[in-house]
Specification:
The complex is a heterodimer of chains A (about 110) and B (about 110). Chain A has about 110 residues and is an all-beta fold. Chain A contains no helices and eleven strands. The mean pLDDT of chain A is about 95. Chain B is globular and about 35 Å long. Classes of the chains: A mainly beta (about 110), B mainly beta (about 110).
Chain lengths: ~110, ~110
């Protein structure tokens, strides 16, 4: 079993839809959770960074961490074609190296 | 904020040729530096990380090596490239363990 599981997609939605991207993990010691957005032929760009459980909102993006279920989510409201990218989750304990999901490819059609 | 410079952006090299990819970081001092390789559909594979000048840890035995000659410079090298070395190479930096990782824009290497 991988430490971090992420559905590869692709996930196709129409413009304006609410998008939910998810990751599950097995290591209960993970404390720091990140979401990265990666456009084609570019490096991953940090979108959201959260510590421990709860929600964090930044504009159209909301990151949610449920440590009891070992489940994290990224919600995108009012999705735009420019949101089309691969979204990577990542997490660590704070004392070890980051563990990444394999990424979910999102396609937002106009 | 950190800025990570990687070059070249793309590279085509024949099998058996040497490789040198360079990464430099601005906006932070004494960062932890990483080299990752990303293959299509296979996620990010950590190759090397460094916590300081001359300190390199290898995650995966392979045809590659890394060096950190200066605080904010990280170099990925190979003496003889293999076809399997093709991929997207990313340099990343964090100011401290547990802080978010920031990536450069990568080098796409094709070995022919």
């Amino acid at each position: 079993q991988k430490e971090v599981e992420q559905d590869p997609g692709p996930l196709s939605v129409p413009e304006g839809a609410i998008v939910s991207l998810n990751c599950t993990y097995s290591n209960s010691a993970f404390q720091y959770f990140m979401w990265y957005r990666q456009y084609s032929r570019k490096g991953p760009e940090l979108l959201m960074y959260t510590y421990s459980s709860g929600n964090k909102e930044d504009g159209r993006f909301t990151a949610q961490v449920d440590k009891s279920s070992k489940y994290i989510s990224l919600f995108i409201r009012d999705s735009q074609p420019s949101d089309s990218a691969t979204y990577l989750c990542a997490m660590n304990t704070g004392f070890q190296k980051l563990v990444f999901g394999t990424g979910t490819r999102l396609l937002v059609s106009p | 904020s950190q800025t990570i410079h990687q070059w070249p952006a793309t590279l085509v090299q024949p099998v058996g040729s040497p490789l040198s990819l360079e990464c430099t970081v601005e906006g932070t001092s004494n960062p932890n530096l990483y080299w990752y390789r990303q293959a299509a559909g296979r996620g990010l594979q950590l190759l090397f990380y460094s916590v300081g000048i001359g300190q390199i840890s290898s995650e995966v035995p392979q045809n590659l090596s890394a060096s950190r000659p200066q605080d904010r410079q990280f170099i990925l090298s190979s003496k003889k490239l293999l076809l399997s070395d093709s991929g997207f190479y990313l340099c990343a930096s964090e100011w401290d363990r547990g802080s978010p990782l920031h990536f450069g824009n990568g080098t796409r290497l094709t070995v022919t």
